[in-house]
Amino acid sequence: MKYKTPISHNTILRLPRYLHLLEEMQGRGQERTSSTEMAIALGMTPSQVRQDLAAFGNYGAQGYGYNIPVLLQEVKKILGLHIRHTIAVVGTGCIGRAMLEHLDYESYNYKVLAAFDVREDVIGTEINGVPVYDAAGMEAWFADHDVDICILAVPAEKARSVAKQLSRYGMPAIWNFTNVDLTQKDMHCVVQNVDFRNSLFTLTYYLENKT
Amino acid sequence: MKYKTPISHNTILRLPRYLHLLEEMQGRGQERTSSTEMAIALGMTPSQVRQDLAAFGNYGAQGYGYNIPVLLQEVKKILGLHIRHTIAVVGTGCIGRAMLEHLDYESYNYKVLAAFDVREDVIGTEINGVPVYDAAGMEAWFADHDVDICILAVPAEKARSVAKQLSRYGMPAIWNFTNVDLTQKDMHCVVQNVDFRNSLFTLTYYLENKT
DNA sequence: TAGATTGTTAATCGATTAACAATC
DNA sequence: TAGATTGTTAATCGATTAACAATC
Lengths: 211, 211
Prior knowledge:
The structure is a homodimer. Chain A is α/β, with parallel strands linked by helices. Helix content of chain A is 43%, strand content 19%. The first copy, chain A, has eight helices and ten strands. In chain A, helix 1 (9-27) packs antiparallel against helix 4 (68-79) and helix 2 (35-42) crosses helix 3 (46-54). The longest helix of chain A is centred in the first third of the chain and has 19 residues, at 9-27. At the A-B interface, helix 1, helix 5 and helix 8 of A face helix 1, helix 5 and helix 8 of B. Chain A binds a DNA duplex through helix 3 and strand 2.
């Protein structure tokens, strides 16, 4: 999709927060909202909310504000949640399992197709309804299935080689839970690094530097 | 600690990346580095690296650069990793277990003291060497133990009430893995929200809006 | 109609980058 | 000494906030 203005990364990071707020409001049976109400709920300025939303389109109306069901659909559409996405999980250690069980993928139009591991005792089992296959058969399986996003949760020492392998298969996106920074240098897929240590360290900084 | 300039949030977010890079360099037996070398490795500008580091102190030397062991210690100290921190885990579902098993807390001077749950079948067991106690005894236990950081991994519907409870116990920091935004409004502790959906949604956005 | 609230333009603020004197 | 590289100051760039005409 093309927008009139280039969209800043900060704006993208705020979209999920708008989404969750709108879902919460809809859950309360609310019909309409305003940039001011959203801003107060999220600790932002009304200007920022309007700027963010107006970058993608004119979803509001003067004197009225925003219709919640409409805006909710639009925000989902901006994020691409109107498109069905398929997911595969590589590595079913503690993190892989947690990601298979923790999120409600169906609610946001994702479908987890399969998981892969090298450990004999998990191959052939199911985790949360998702079959676990032998990692040895990955190449053939990926050739047969269209996967949009791969959850990478293998041990750190295997992270780079498995990521390159996935990249070779033409994987469009990798959600990387290994604590290895997968720079997109030699890969042509979208990568999101989730390093829990970073999160813990910044928390620790603010803990030790409270105002 | 007090610094000459107010430190921006973006700078704090980059510190863990410097830390990991320096550890990697040290692991290769490297003795010294420069802002240019670090910038190239991290995809930043040398100016940014120097600005970030100089905000905390003068760790480099003209004509030489930075001594890796020294800078590594300094970055750890800025983040507060020279101080030993204690952790408790509340909720031992898939995420709680994963956080107990995934991270090497000892390497960064953290000590996980205990985990809590309400489920009979896990109470009394150990996860990765950490004892799981009955959540009913939390108040007494927290009165007896100094905990710096609580990993919150209870079901979403209990998130807010358990967080308030922890806040009442005087918990200094909460690392929040429930998909509930714990605004710091009514709580006087530092909170870090980790909502995996946000991460997945932004990944999806960039997947659908590749350049 | 009057009041409310948008989308947008202009003003402000902060963060990043560039330049360079200091000096190892 | 000459070359390299810092820390810092100034310049640029981008993001946030404020203001307001348009209009529901």
